[in-house]
């Protein structure tokens, strides 16, 4: 196992060197400036998976009954609860950290070394924490996306966290080397077997496998850092909060006008007065507040409608031609007296 891993790392270093030479040009994605190298390493990792891990995991899943695989997953998950609890405490989530310690004690005893997850049935929730998430909660930026040889997707912050996570792994302190290597290999194969269906779904659905895995990893890690409630991401073009506030202030509020082009009220003014009829009450606009000028009185909608109805009634006064008497004489019609009237058109 150790010899095989060493050879894989040697090959990975060679691929890394060529990837760095071919990936000097940055990509258009600010989160993935090393895309050239990352794609090369991603292809290498996929090759290792297709040749070694995937076939072994497929055979393992075919041979091992589901109940046995569930027990193996529970066993390694129980060991992880110790380090997860420590990270919860470091993040200030004391209650979750105590719950993780309780899970470990309950599953290690009643659950027979963690083979049975009795803690979940008892109401102790399973968490997922690591040092990368802890650093993220402390305010450390993730840094560029980075594909680690053999281990897969990561970023600079999570890569640093993985080094410390390995120090906190209980399997590292198993003194018997063959037993430790067997446990490590079993965990890798079991984890890969649990992901066989997911990887097949990704391969069938993704047009660009690399882009799909990268984006999914970045979104998932951001969600884990904020416990499923990440804040809105800041526009990369905006470099500071002051610049963001200045940009927001420079955007003029939407203005509402009637069908004749007259101003009714701005959107912000409408929000301030949601259920009022403006019977001649003047509401200064944002422009008037800035310049000190006086706006024309704002008319309510009912007043505007009334004005529209009144303006539709026009006075009609026919003009009598100068030769009106001559026209009547020629036509033989008796002269009449015309009166000015007002009627609707």
Mean pLDDT rating: 77
**Going across the major beta sheet, what is the strand order?**
1-2
Q: Provide the gyration radius in Å.
A: 38 Å
* Tally of individual helices: 15
Low-confidence stretches: 8-25, 274-281, 310-316, 338-345
- Number of β-strand runs: 4
Structural class: mainly alpha
> Could you estimate the helical fraction of the residues in percent?
55-70%
Q: Secondary-structure element sequence?
A: HHHHHHEEHHHHHEEHHHH
The major beta sheet can be summarized as: 2 strands, antiparallel
First-residue to last-residue Cα separation: 99 Å
Residues in β-strands, percent: under 5%
What is the overall shape? globular
Description:
This protein has 345 residues and is mainly α. Among the domains are: 2-63 and 130-225, no CATH class; 255-312, no CATH class. It has 15 helices and 4 strands. It has helices at 2-22, 35-63, 66-90, 94-109, 118-121, 131-137, 156-167, 177-194, 196-205, 209-225, 241-249, 267-272, 286-291, 301-311, 324-331, and strands at 145-148, 152-155, 255-257, 263-266. A hairpin with a 5-residue loop joins strand 3 (255-257) and strand 4. The radius of gyration is 38 Å and the shape is globular. It starts with a helix and ends in a 14-residue tail after the last helix.
């Amino acid at each position: 196992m150790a010899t095989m891993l060493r050879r894989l790392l040697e090959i990975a270093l060679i691929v890394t060197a060529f990837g760095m030479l071919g990936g000097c040009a940055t990509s258009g994605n600010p989160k993935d400036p090393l895309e050239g190298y990352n794609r090369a390493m991603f292809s290498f990792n996929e090759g290792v998976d297709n040749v070694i891990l995937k076939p072994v995991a497929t055979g393992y899943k075919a041979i091992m009954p589901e109940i046995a695989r569930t027990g193996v997953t529970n066993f390694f998950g129980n060991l992880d609860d110790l380090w997860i609890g420590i990270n919860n405490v470091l993040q200030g989530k004391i209650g979750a950290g105590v719950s993780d310690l309780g899970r470990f004690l309950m599953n290690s005893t009643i659950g027979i070394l963690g083979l049975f997850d009795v803690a979940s049935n008892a109401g102790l929730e399973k968490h997922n924490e690591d040092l990368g998430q802890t650093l993220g909660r402390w305010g450390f930026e993730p840094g560029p996306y980075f594909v680690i040889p053999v281990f897969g997707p990561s970023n600079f912050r999570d890569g640093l966290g993985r080094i410390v996570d390995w120090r906190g792994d209980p399997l590292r302190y198993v003194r018997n080397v063959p037993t430790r290597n067997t446990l490590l290999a079993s965990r890798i194969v079991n984890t890969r077997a649990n992901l066989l269906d997911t990887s097949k779904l990704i391969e069938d659905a993704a047009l660009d496998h690399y882009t799909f895995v990268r984006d999914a990893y970045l979104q998932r890690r951001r969600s884990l850092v904020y416990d499923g409630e990440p804040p809105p991401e800041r526009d990369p073009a905006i470099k500071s909060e002051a610049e963001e506030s200045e940009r927001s202030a420079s955007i003029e509020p939407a203005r509402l006008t009637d069908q004749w082009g007259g101003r009714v009220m701005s959107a912000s003014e409408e929000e301030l007065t949601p259920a009022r009829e403006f019977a001649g009450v003047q509401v200064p606009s944002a422009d008037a507040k800035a310049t000190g000028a006086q706006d024309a009185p704002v008319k309510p909608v009912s007043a505007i409608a009334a004005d529209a109805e009144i303006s539709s009634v026009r006075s009609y006064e026919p003009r009598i031609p100068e030769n009106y008497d001559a026209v009547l004489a020629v036509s033989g019609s008796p002269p009449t007296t015309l009166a000015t009237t007002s009627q609707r058109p």
